[in-house]
Amino acid sequence: MREPFDEQAPRPVLHREYEIHVGCRPGPALLRSMQWAHRVQGTQSVIRVRASAEGLAEFLTCCADSGLEIDRMTRLDPPEASR
């Protein structure tokens, strides 16, 4: 028999991997502060982020606050493979 769902019970934090294409090249100081893998592809920077939903929101806020334009974001791993 299944136990009833407890909304107060802590939930595991899922980290998922994303690849984010930024419309310009962020400065080295910003990239170092984010501590995520990145590469230059043409006039864009491609940044790999492995983060929780909260961490991803912080990253996107950091991009917006820095004036970076996000061209594309793709989740790289399927939800069931995330841990």
Report what the structure shows.
- The chain is of the alpha+beta class and 83 residues long.
- It has a domain at 16-38 and 48-78.
- The protein is 24% helix and 30% strand.
- It contains 2 helices and 4 strands.
- The chain has helices at residues 28-34, 53-65, and strands spanning 16-22, 38-41, 44-51, 70-75.
- Strands 2-3-1-4 form a 4-stranded antiparallel sheet, covered by helices on one side.
- The radius of gyration is 16 Å and the shape is elongated.
- The chain starts with 15 loop residues before the first strand and ends in an 8-residue tail after the last strand.
- The relative contact order is 0.29.
- The model has no long low-confidence stretch (mean pLDDT 79).
Keywords:
alpha+beta; 24% helix; 83 residues; four-stranded antiparallel β-sheet; 30% strand
Give a short overview.
This protein is of the alpha+beta class and 83 residues long. Helices cover 24% and strands 30% of the residues.
Topology:
Blueprint: E1 16-22, H1 28-34, E2 38-41, E3 44-51, H2 53-65, E4 70-75
Antiparallel strand pairs: 1-3, 1-4, 2-3
* Helical coverage, percent range: 10-25%
* DSSP strand count: 4
> Can you summarize the main beta sheet?
4 strands, antiparallel
Strand order of the largest sheet: 2-3-1-4
